[in-house]
Amino acid sequence: MYNPIRKTKEGYEYQEFIYCGCGCGLTKSKYDTHGRIGKYIHRHTLKGERSPFYKNGEYIDRKGYVRIRKPDHPKVCSDGYIAKHRLVYEEYYNCCLLPWTDIHHINIHNLSKEENKRDNSIENLQVIMHSEHSILTCKERWNKIH
């Protein structure tokens, strides 16, 4: 697909257009300002399952917890992900956790703190009130320092 972009002495100069590689149906210039061929409109790269970086809807957040994509879950965050330990607990006990409850990783396997956050086996999970969980984690930090 070609469109004239400017008129020269020899005639019109044409620019080649292609369809965006994401499948949205929009067109873009085949070449960028540096002469490189591009497949996508800015921010139209492959998303979700079509992306080569997709990892079955799971990722590790900045706190070290595994998060899983479940956009239909009632307690999901705005990005469509929920903490995997909450999901494992709810599915095993067939319940819906209340907003003021937390899931505590007991660390029965004597793992490091980062490895323990990723151990979502049901025997390593314990439901606890948020206020009690805050006290418990503060005590754990205090014992680690002193």
Secondary-structure topology with pairs:
Layout: E1 2-7, E2 12-19, E3 27-29, E4 58-60, E5 66-69, E6 81-83, H1 84-93, E7 101-105, H2 113-118, E8 125-129, H3 130-145
Antiparallel strand pairs: 1-2, 2-3, 4-5, 5-6, 7-8
Description:
The protein is α+β, with helices and mostly antiparallel strands and 146 residues long. It has two domains: 2-47, no CATH class; 55-145, no CATH class. Helix content is 22%, strand content 25%. It has three helices and eight strands, in the order ββββββαβαβα. The protein has helices at residues 84-93, 113-118, 130-145, and strands at 2-7, 12-19, 27-29, 58-60, 66-69, 81-83, 101-105, 125-129. The chain has a three-stranded antiparallel beta sheet, with no helix packed on it. It has a three-stranded antiparallel beta sheet with strand order 4-5-6. Strand 1 (2-7) and strand 2 form a beta hairpin. The termini are far apart. 8% of the residues are buried. The mean pLDDT is 83.
Quick gist of this model?
The protein is of the alpha+beta class and 146 residues long.
